[in-house]
Amino acid sequence: MTVADLSTTDRYPTRGSDSALLERTDPTVWSGGPTGPATRDELAAHDTKGFHVQEGLLSPAEVQTYWQELERLTRDEEVRADERTIIERSSDEVRSIFEVHRISPLIGELTRDPRVLDRARQILGSDVYVHQSRINYMPGFRGTGFYWHSDFETWHAEDGMPDPRAVSISIALTDNFPFNGGLMIMPGAHRTFVSCAGETPEQNHKTSLKQQRVGVPSEEAITKLAYEHGIEQFTGPAGSALWFDSNCMHGSGNNITPYPRSNIFIVFNSAENSLVDPYAASAPRPNHIASRDFTPLQR
Ligand code: 6CS
Ligand code: FE
């Protein structure tokens, strides 16, 4: 099936026989919703670039508390053996812990913290629920990064997310430097949907969360977007946070420094954008990767 065939049934067709750059036909900041703490300039930056930084979200004391929680989780043998925990390919260190907002009550509270929840509702212009949460531990020396991708391309194809009406927050628990795997992101590329060639294999999530092989943009698409938009990098002290649109083109390098780059990552989806059947996979991914509990979050 070519992208043209798919487009009659789907505004963001992907994983057909060829790749293409399609225009995003949805807003980035949705109007008409609840007000919130984001300033006019922050919303303008988010709309134009697809992301904005929330400086000093967590106090140093809170960073310490969440860092200790992260250390506790990565040392807990039950958590390490849990299917929601992804171990690094090249070592036995924890790479990610999914559904961490349900595993850790402390991180669960953070999803309902007004400093976080109200900003998500403001950007998405509606009630929201947690689509996915994870801790990316990115240990020193052996932390491996993530190749260029759009999260929405995966969430649309494999989770059945209709529109890019979702926003992620990446909260730095350690200092994010340019040299320890800091997130790279193309400002403005969120307005282009990169349709990727290649069918989704059965049970793809069993390997894609360690290394993504399908839903990966072509080097031609990445080159075109990089020359058109450039590349910025999220760096900042522990406690700062990056809010980024679900369709941002982003990636991160490996971390060969001694400094871990550990983040809490929460994805808010609009309650008006709840998941349907996957658009390009034979079965939906498990609930701990793509929640099907659409109950809107309350403070
Ligand atoms: O597949 C996913 O849902 C996850 N994969 C990546 C590389 N980023 C978004 C998300 O956490
Ligand atoms: Fe991602």
TrEMBL record:
The secretion signal range is: none
Q: Where is the composition biased (Polar residues)?
A: 1-11
A molecular function annotated in GO for this UniProt entry is: oxidoreductase activity
Asked whether the keyword Oxidoreductase is assigned, the reply is yes
The UniProt annotation puts the region (Disordered) at: 1-36
Keyword Oxidoreductase attached: yes
Look up the EC number in the record and give it.
Answer: 1.14.11.55
Q: Which cofactor does it need?
A: Fe(2+)
Please write the reaction equations for the catalytic activity of this protein: L-ectoine + 2-oxoglutarate + O2 = 5-hydroxyectoine + succinate + CO2
Listed InterPro entries:
EctD (IPR012774), Phytyl_CoA_dOase-like (IPR008775)
What does the annotation say about its assembly with partners? Homodimer.
What is the protein's given name? Answer: Ectoine hydroxylase
Q: What is the name of the gene encoding this protein? A: thpD
